[in-house]
Model the fold of this input.
Amino acid sequence: MLICQWHLDIAYGKQGEAVKIMRAWGAEKFASSEFRLARGSRLSAGLVGASASHLVDEYWFDSMADFEAALAGMAAPRFRVHSDALAPYIVPGSQHWVIYRVLEESSGDVAARSGPS
Done:
């Protein structure tokens, strides 16, 4: 599995507007593009050690081919309205993708993984 993160910084004081646009775009992506192949997604903002203006739009894909197909679909005209709406809020030069390969998945139950005390 891959964790594909789109990192971007938003102009100071504009996080609310940017998040509203990104949520609408995300809904459209899952409804009408190959982003529906993603196992899930998450939108995060910096809190400690990262600026609150730093957003991470994250998707979980089974393969690089699925991720590439999803990105290719973003060229469709119906998505242009979202990218055009978001563009004025993005700090120029701040956006980039980071992709991680998952080595191990867990259920999140730390006590069960650590065994008896």
